[in-house]
Amino acid sequence: MLKIENLKASIDNKEILKGLNLEVKPGEIHAIMGPNGTGKSTLANVITGRDVYEISDGSIQFTNEDLLELDPDERARLGIFLAFQYPVEIPGVTTTNFMKAAINERRRHQDKEPMKASEFLKMMKEKMKLVDIDQKFMSRSLNEGFSGGEKKRNEIFQMAMLEPKLAILDETDSGLDIDALKIVSNGVNQLRNKDNAFIIITHYQRLLDYIVPDFVHVMYDGRIVKSGDKELAKELEAKGYDWIKEEQAV
Amino acid sequence: MIAIKNKYTEAFEKLKKSENSAEAHALKRFQKMGIPNRKSEVYKYSNLKHFKNLTPSTEGRIPHKLPEYFTHQYLLDKHLLVTVNGVFAESLSSYEGDEDGIHISCMCDARKEFRDIVESHYNETSTEYPDAFSEMNTAFAQCGIFIYATKNAQAKKPIVMLHLGYNQPKDSLTCQRNLIVLEQNSEVELIEDYVNIDKEEAFNINHFSEYFIKQDARLKVNIYQEDSNQVHFIGNKFFELGKGSNLKVTTLNFQGEFIRNNFRVNLNGEHGEATLNGIFINGDKDHTDSRILIKHNAPNCESFQTFKGILDDQSTGVFNGKVFVAEGAQKTNAFQSNKNILLSEEATINTKPELEIYADDVKCSHGATCGQLDENAIFYAQTRGIPREKAKKLIVFAFAQEVIQDIDNELFKNFMERRLVHNLDLAEYSTHGSVQSGIKE
Questions:
Q1: Measured between beta carbons, which residues in chain A are less than 8 angstroms from residue B428?
Q2: Do B186 and B282 sit in the same domain of this protein?
Q3: Does A116 contact chain B (CB < 8 Å)?
Q4: Got the DSSP string for B313-379?
Q5: Is A93 in Cβ contact with B395 (below 8 Å)?
Q6: What's the whole-model pTM score?
Q7: What's the rounded Cα separation, in Å, for the pair B190 and B210?
Q8: Per-residue pLDDT at B441
Q9: How far is A45 from chain B (nearest CA, A)?
Q10: d(CA B234, CA A44)
Q11: How many helices (H) and strands (E) does chain A have?
């Protein structure tokens, strides 16, 4: 589904990704862990098409398309979704209208009529239930005045609405209390199936107690330096990242 | 200089006013001032060259032939007052006279039937800060609209003032003049709509309205102008507020070639409240200049200003909002905000919020921002599959919505939302179904 080869990306002439390789197949959940500043969020941004990064080498293939040739919205319509680490507030745009625009835009590109209002509302209700989000948030400005936990839940709600093939969760667990964490995880677990895939970027093993990954990767200095199964996450939790750094220094 | 003076004097002679009339004195004052140039602080960012070539119209009557449509759909139940080139057109208007204690007539009739009211209010607001255009207006005023709400009167329906421009000579300037007086505890809602029937024709207006809002009276004014290619508009609107009175003005300017709005509000009695909101959307070389002066002359008054601008292409905008707090006007609460979005690198906005305070127990805040669209927000929308251009429009729409959402009249608000959707080409995202607006399509 997703195949990243030797990816190198820089910002302001500073190389952040230094030859990264990753392959994700349908039905898989990959966790990416690692210390601060190793390029985890950069990877999420580069996959989704943020244009502040310069790609100097490598490739990203997604369902046989060359992602690097596409605009962010084209990538999104192919089925890539990013749950933001810091969801953006858009004053005046309600979550409802935002989702309506997103869904109808996708349908327009599939030569389909806009979704019927009744159908849309039914879908909204269903997905709201999934992340236990209140109706009142739907008619409020997107993310404006939302608490950290509410913003993250709203991200998962949007993910549920858009039903992506590949969802990237960028530190969705940071700033969440245990109840919110359970709700978010539950949402992800209900959405996962054999045809979609998830990349979960996190600092902590905690989230992985609820969303069990098939693979755990450790990122350090712009590369994936270690891969394993869920046991690797536990090892990292117990021992920290210093041993990885030491290993790399050798 | 002499030639310019002669042009006005010649035109004035056609009106056959006596040398000692108020009009003649106003003309003298105007001639002394002349059309302001760029050195004038008050018109620093608005080039008035166009107005120098115009002569005030002295036609004084409505044109013989007029197109046969005047059905605006945004309000079904209304009093409709139509002016054509500044002259009240009784035959095109439909209103119930004297309903609910609201008297409506043309200014000429009012001068006879409501002589005392007119004499004690007409032109009373223009002496404090002389302005060339208000003086010119007084000299050349056409027979405009007079609205008088008696004590405790409540207009059950909004009063729509549809100001039409039709078949004006290219070099003529319409001096439109209205007087609105609300007696104690009365309530009126106005919608002022400016329409150039033939968009390619000249539409030159020097508009001057005076509004008196007496003790505990409440006035709402919604001002709307859209897509008038040839519009050159100077609007002076002066408001006098009594004790406990309330004023709310919302101004919506969509793509006008040259718009200058000059609002002056005097809060003269305790516990008065004035809200002035505005939004403009400019493209091409459009120019919109809003100048606001709110004077807190009495204690315990509140004023709120929210003005927004959206500028594309090579358009320009000016905001100059000033709050003046007089000595002794304690417990004043004044808020002022001006926000602008620049969609092109060639668009320009000049913004100058001002405070002048002579009391020590007041709460005043002001702020101005101008900037490009938030790239984070655009990217966020793109990651949901919304193309970049659409994402921008969605954000701009939301930016403008803040002003429109604050309109109290639901029907007018919905109409404005549809106009916004139309202007930003966002029909498919509209929550209000298809765009329909009557004569503007």
A1: 104, 108, 114
A2: yes
A3: no
A4: TT-EEEEEEEEEE-TT-TTEEEEEEEEEEE-STT-EEEEEEEEEE--SSEEEEEEEEEE---HHHHH
A5: yes
A6: 0.83
A7: 13
A8: 28
A9: 10
A10: 53
A11: 9, 12
What's the confidence (pLDDT) of residue A147?
Answer: 87
pLDDT tens across B253-280, in order? 998 899 999 999 999 999 999 999 999 9
Measured at the CA of B171, the angle between CA B170 and CA B175, to 5 degrees, comes to: 105
Q: Which residues of chain A have a CB within 8 Å of the CB of B397?
A: 92-93
For residue B393, the chain A residue with the least C-alpha distance is A93
What is the pLDDT at residue B64? Answer: 63
H/E run at residue B27: helix B22-33
Local structure of residue A116 (DSSP, 8 states): P
SS3 for B207-245, per residue? Answer: EEEEEEECCCCEEEEEEEEEEEEEEEEEEEEEEEECCCC
From B384, B400, B428, residue closest to A162, measured CB to CB: B384
Other Cβ atoms within 10 Å of A27 Cβ, number: 14
List, for residues B193-205, the tens digit of each pLDDT value: 998 888 788 899 9
* Residues B73, B144 within the same domain: yes
Sequence ranges of the domains in chain A: 2-92+164-249
Coil, helix or strand at residue B287: strand
Cα angle, residue A79 at apex, residues A53 and A166 outer, rounded to 5° = 80
- Give the count of beta carbons closer than 10 Å to the beta carbon of residue A133: 21
Closest-CA residue to B337 (of B356, B324, B325, B355): B355
Residue where one domain finishes, among candidates B382, B402, B426: B382
Q: Which residues of B125-161 are buried (b: 16+ CB within 10 A; e: fewer)?
A: bbeeeebbbbbbbbbbbbbbbbbbbbeebebebbbbb
pLDDT digits (tens, 9 = 90+) for A219-238: 999 999 999 999 998 888 88
pLDDT at A160 over 50: yes
Tell me which of B344 and B428 has the higher pLDDT.
B344
Q: What is the pLDDT of residues B298-315, one digit of tens each?
A: 999 999 999 999 999 999
Q: Are B301 and B363 in contact (CB under 8 A)?
A: no
Q: How confident is residue B65, by pLDDT bands cut at 50, 70 and 90?
A: low
Comparing alpha-carbon positions, the chain B residue that sits nearest to A163 is: B384
pLDDT tens-digit profile of A49-94? 999 999 999 999 999 899 999 999 999 999 999 999 999 998 888 8
A170 contacts on B by Cβ (under 8 Å): none
The span from the CA of B162 to the CA of B192, in Å, is 6
| A117 in contact with B, Cβ within 8 Å | no
> Chain B contacts of A106, Cβ < 8 Å?
385
**A73·B397 Cβ contact <8 A:** no
Number of structural domains found in chain B: 2
- Which amino acid makes up residue A167? A
Other CB atoms within 10 A of residue B325 CB: 25
Which residues of chain B are within 8 Å of residue A49 when distances are taken between CB atoms?
A: 382-383
Give the position of tokens 């305790």: B270
> Token pair 């006879």 is at which residue?
B112
B367, B308: one domain: yes
Nearest CA in chain B to A109: B385
CB B267, CB B275: distance < 8 Å: no
Does the pLDDT at position B435 exceed 50? Answer: no
Q: How wide is the angle at C-alpha A82 spanned by C-alphas A31 and B373, nearest 5°?
A: 145
ipTM: 0.95
Nearest partner of B92 among B103, B104, B80, B102, judged by Cα: B80
Give yes or no: residues B354 and B408 share one domain.
Answer: no
pLDDT of residue B432: 42
Q: How many other C-beta atoms lie within 10 A of the C-beta of residue A47?
A: 22
| Domain topology for A2-92+164-249 | Rossmann fold (3.40.50)
Evaluate whether B227 touches B191 at the Cβ level (below 8 Å).
Answer: no
Q: How many CB pairs under 8 A join A and B?
A: 89
Q: Give the amino acid at A171.
A: E
Q: Which residue has the tokens 């004097």?
A: B9
